[in-house]
Amino acid sequence: MTLRAGVVGAAGFAGIELVRLLLAHPELTLTAVTSDALAGRPLADAYPAFRGATDLAFSAHDQADLESCDVVFLAVPHTAALAQAPGLLERGVTVVDLSADFRLKDPAVYEAWYQVPHTAPGLLAQAAFGLPELTGGELARAAAARARGEAVLVGCAGCYPTATSLAAAPAIRAGLVDPAGTVVADAVSGVTGAGKKATERTHFCFADENLEAYGVGTHRHTPEIEQILGIPGRLVFTPHLAPLNRGLLSTVNLPLDPAAPRPSADELVALYRDFYADAPLVEVLDPGTWPRTASVAGTCRAHIGVTAHPTAPMIVAVGAIDNLGKGAAGQAVQCANIVFGLPEDAGLTAVAQPV
Amino acid sequence: MTLRAGVVGAAGFAGIELVRLLLAHPELTLTAVTSDALAGRPLADAYPAFRGATDLAFSAHDQADLESCDVVFLAVPHTAALAQAPGLLERGVTVVDLSADFRLKDPAVYEAWYQVPHTAPGLLAQAAFGLPELTGGELARAAAARARGEAVLVGCAGCYPTATSLAAAPAIRAGLVDPAGTVVADAVSGVTGAGKKATERTHFCFADENLEAYGVGTHRHTPEIEQILGIPGRLVFTPHLAPLNRGLLSTVNLPLDPAAPRPSADELVALYRDFYADAPLVEVLDPGTWPRTASVAGTCRAHIGVTAHPTAPMIVAVGAIDNLGKGAAGQAVQCANIVFGLPEDAGLTAVAQPV
Amino acid sequence: MTLRAGVVGAAGFAGIELVRLLLAHPELTLTAVTSDALAGRPLADAYPAFRGATDLAFSAHDQADLESCDVVFLAVPHTAALAQAPGLLERGVTVVDLSADFRLKDPAVYEAWYQVPHTAPGLLAQAAFGLPELTGGELARAAAARARGEAVLVGCAGCYPTATSLAAAPAIRAGLVDPAGTVVADAVSGVTGAGKKATERTHFCFADENLEAYGVGTHRHTPEIEQILGIPGRLVFTPHLAPLNRGLLSTVNLPLDPAAPRPSADELVALYRDFYADAPLVEVLDPGTWPRTASVAGTCRAHIGVTAHPTAPMIVAVGAIDNLGKGAAGQAVQCANIVFGLPEDAGLTAVAQPV
Amino acid sequence: MTLRAGVVGAAGFAGIELVRLLLAHPELTLTAVTSDALAGRPLADAYPAFRGATDLAFSAHDQADLESCDVVFLAVPHTAALAQAPGLLERGVTVVDLSADFRLKDPAVYEAWYQVPHTAPGLLAQAAFGLPELTGGELARAAAARARGEAVLVGCAGCYPTATSLAAAPAIRAGLVDPAGTVVADAVSGVTGAGKKATERTHFCFADENLEAYGVGTHRHTPEIEQILGIPGRLVFTPHLAPLNRGLLSTVNLPLDPAAPRPSADELVALYRDFYADAPLVEVLDPGTWPRTASVAGTCRAHIGVTAHPTAPMIVAVGAIDNLGKGAAGQAVQCANIVFGLPEDAGLTAVAQPV
């Protein structure tokens, strides 16, 4: 038995990375690859990397093709998933959504940050949040429902929330962090995070040899991180852009709970390793060692380093992922694996190019 | 049955890429990974990409471990392979050498270009040249010998010769090229081609945002390309360095034989496609389309574009490879596959990251 | 006395580099900076590098402002210069054009390559070609006319023609090159050469970590190089794109005249140094040394290396420039300097950032 | 009158940038350029950017040459300045030191962080701290002493301290920041910040396409920033490395004083602009606008953005500089300008390349 999978929005960066992963997946078979803009063109026309490897072509959005899938991945902008998910679910198709439409549990928060109405609050209530190492319970329930024959909906975490939350959650959940304190996350992303649209910001000549902050205090991933970590209104999140294609590093500063004993770096590493003991795709580095995004590029893996600051009452944790891998397409596949009862890392065991 | 494989010099760039490929190979099992400099250290210490994926450690050069292999890959500097290959072959171990020691058929040419004596001319005479799409006969004979139980030796082509020869050979072998003319190949490589040694040349701050030519008229790949293409003394080859990690593009200018009819771009593409009809890892692009190294990065694939110049009597062919993939480690695995009777592209079907 | 200068099309890459150079020029004062798209916005809005350094704003194309200039630089697409130059010249304004409209001496060649009619063949006949080291006579005549009070027109060389011709001309003019042979120039450019327009090709994620050839046999700089070097129909020119902002390297392969004695590298370097003895912005490197584009980035300088191939009958010359500097804005200023009787390198003596 | 200047350690990255700036300085004349490693070689041998622009050669460290200077810049590792400054000062030579030796007011702090004895605590007590926008008083006193004929010593701020402190100081000095709170500064640097030494860390192939944190909680710039800002033991500083040559961005998170009224972004920008009203090289960007390092690359300028976080009690300020410009060589020249009574920005008015 293999499962039939479709990708909607396959011409975008997350979509085409999904295609790459699914073509090599041992249990999922890609049967529908849609792009309105590129309909009819072979994948290899737009992305020559596929030349010689597949004859698949982009198709127009064809509901019938999609409805014959076991699972459809929505790699579309927000609001588009709101429009498409309900119909697929009604026909019994499991939906793994990479957009922001089914991430924020409270539709009012969604509406405040995205400035559009949430048209499917009922589905939102049922959706599992897709960040497996931190929302295993939700995904397990979804897997159980799927096993009963129900179509399920997963709203996958965004890229910044993934790296930031993986770095922060073990300390917070262990009660080490001041419940009244402000968490500061400064994160840096490669340019694939800005998407495929050609703009001045993604122009090589403006992005190359440049570092910049953006969206200070206003980035839409803020409420999502706050939700995952349970720190509403207590996050200062600043994203940055750096001149590389893939990679996302989040440095998270967590104020120590004055009531908790000050941990050593060794203790923190031990705590984190225990937390991620069953997570095949997360590695906690040795004390004093810090992650490199290049070491996880092209993969669904995450590397984390953590220490306690020597003078200030602060835990510093750093998470590295590939924004298109663990931060998008890889994570979506990981969620699908779980929902369909496959090994969590099926099709995701590749190692980054060492150089 | 799986075959036991070893990598000597595994800490270098070609060596560690071999390790990455072999860890995912369906038929070869990596059992020995040697590095004198890093002996005893886990792979993941030097290359954190392997963290969580393998517990393998570098070992010191251990002859016994290597002798228990079915095949040993030598990813060592020239002269080191001369020293190591004979002993392995004597013990029945097939050797796939990535150095220059067994490439040049004429030991005198080797000695002239490398300025050291060739200490194993007998082995050289037996060695198969490893560029499968162009030296299939030699490799087939090696495979036959291997099938009879003999250990065989393959001297794999270098990175520039691979891209350049794949682009040039179909036209030359079809008799389209002036047998008295000079072939001009201008090739550009990413910095992994300069090796792992930290020097001023490989320093980020000197390589970044820079283009340069080097070794004009003196690069050691010159005689190798001339040998493959059968154009002794008729090659002007200029390598260049550009600011990227992986990727090698060779633009080859082939003077038309005045006696041959002038081909159209369509005819050339058809000729090339016919030439590579049985080559699963080589793609010839549509007329007017030119290869991008990013589309083959991290893979053993080659993309080729070709046309006839509209005014001058010249064929222009462009070949793109990953210098560490099809230009080194991937090609070595491809050669091993052939020698052991496996599908040529076993373990080599990965597609480049589309972005 | 300072001279009043205007830049039309100042928001583009060549235009804004002109602005940068002119703001620091000792004798030219920038009085008009036009951009239809950005009219009314301060330079610093679009290019924050100017913040704190100038209060200048882009203006709409205002004929009166421009007509009050002594010299106007046209940094516009081809055909736009055809439209604008005549009016300015009629009002006595000297025009330095960076577009292709006044480069090709033969309007029929222009029309064949650009597929539009040339509407000012009379002006074309008067225009001086702006590549000072090679067209000093034309520019000297223009300077003399200017000194008599006439407005003059300069059509500046393109970026690829500049690097390629500087590398090739001394050998060709010395009679060393086979008059029936084909010259092969393979050149690599940074992405600023592709212009400011945001396209898939200039998207960071497609240009980064990639090498590609383009326009093989069809690039519009081909007839311009042939004209400068006097080699009609005998040039095979292949441009390439590499992942850096600024920098252009042209490797030129010149077939030796069978009748000429074979020169040594030392002789060639001596010949080239003699040729460029009076050129303050061109450096010929020592034999065996090859230019780096980083060493001329941000400047109007050119570095050249040259040798004779050891086996093949070929001279190999390599020229490095900044495509926006010596290849565009710097060269335009150099031409204006000459026309107005200023030192050739006035405002152009800056040195590249050493790292 | 021009002043004679020398650079010790001119072959390093900060040293050679000093050479570039001083060669174009209107009032300082470079008369001694020392490098023990490159003594006797022309600048242009090691840094071809200087070819055609200067005939200067590196000299061995020659005390006599240096003693004839009015000012000597020490671009040497820490401890080397401790060894060299006293003798120069005794001979009446003003010393501008770029190392860490004269930055930390308390020798015990120096000894704790650098693990070497401070051998010149008396000089340290006299040294002016060189970050002109924040230590104008110290530099004014040094200028007055210099005007009286005394040799003076300036210990220039480091690169991270410069960007971080320029971003943080106006808010702190205005009393907006919680005096018991922890300041979090996450900063990202280009690779020139790691110095000229070729190591695995500065190897192109490890730095390219990679982001990493390093020295978390242990970087030696920590006490320097704490000293400048007057926040001992209250700084969490994490430096990061990104794949670009020049550029340093520091994002500083400043906890609001609970007793102070919450400022708006407009108020903060007004406060910052007032603070830097007399600083010709610092620009405070409009509210909602964030600095780009590319806009200050190659210059001594700094760009700053600032806002108050919408939900958390935090000011976020971002400073962008060129780590070799305002972060090292440019700042040293700026300090010398002040000490010698020149315009603060003499020789430092260049604008970054707009692309």
The helix/strand order of chain A is EHEHHEHEHHEHEHEHEHEEHEEEH
Distance between the termini of chain A: 37 Å
Proportion in β-strands of chain A: 15-25%
Radius of gyration of chain A: 20 Å
Q: Can you tell me the CATH topology of the largest domain in chain A?
A: Rossmann fold
Biggest interface: chains and residue counts?
A: A-D, 53 and 53 residues
CATH class call of the largest domain in chain A? Alpha Beta
Work out the count of structural domains of chain A.
2
Query: Taking strands numbered 1, 2, ... along the chain, how are they ordered across the largest sheet of chain A?
Result: 8-9-7-10-13-12-11
Q: Give the structural class of chain A.
A: alpha/beta
Number of strands of chain A: 13
Shape of chain A: globular
**CATH architecture annotation name of the largest domain in chain A:** 3-Layer(aba) Sandwich
EC number (chains A, B, C, D): 1.2.1.38
Function (chains A, B, C, D): Catalyzes the NADPH-dependent reduction of N-acetyl-5-glutamyl phosphate to yield N-acetyl-L-glutamate 5-semialdehyde.
Family (chains A, B, C, D): Belongs to the NAGSA dehydrogenase family. Type 1 subfamily.
Main location (chains A, B, C, D): cytoplasm
Q: Can you give a write-up of this model?
A:
The structure is a homotetramer of 355-residue chains. The first copy, chain A, is α/β, with parallel strands linked by helices and 355 residues long. Chain A folds into 2 domains: 3-157 and 327-339, Rossmann fold (3-Layer(aba) Sandwich), CATH 3.40.50; 159-324, Dihydrodipicolinate Reductase, domain 2, CATH 3.30.360. Chain A has helices at residues 13-23, 43-46, 63-67, 80-90, 107-114, 121-126, 136-147, 159-173, 204-207, 221-229, 265-275, 325-339, and strands at residues 3-8, 28-34, 71-74, 94-97, 128-130, 153-156, 183-189, 212-213, 235-241, 248-255, 282-284, 302-308, 314-321. In chain A, the strands form 2 sheets. Chain A has a 7-stranded mixed beta sheet. A 6-stranded parallel beta sheet of chain A has the order 2-1-3-4-6-5, sandwiched between helices. In chain A, helix 1 crosses helix 12. The longest helix of chain A is centred in the middle third of the chain and has 15 residues, at 159-173. The first copy, chain A, is globular and about 60 Å long. The mean pLDDT of chain A is 97. At the A-D interface, strand 7, strand 8, strand 9, strand 10 and strand 12 of A face strand 7, strand 8, strand 9, strand 10 and strand 12 of D. Chains A, B, C, D: Keywords: Amino-acid biosynthesis, Arginine biosynthesis, Cytoplasm, NADP, Oxidoreductase.
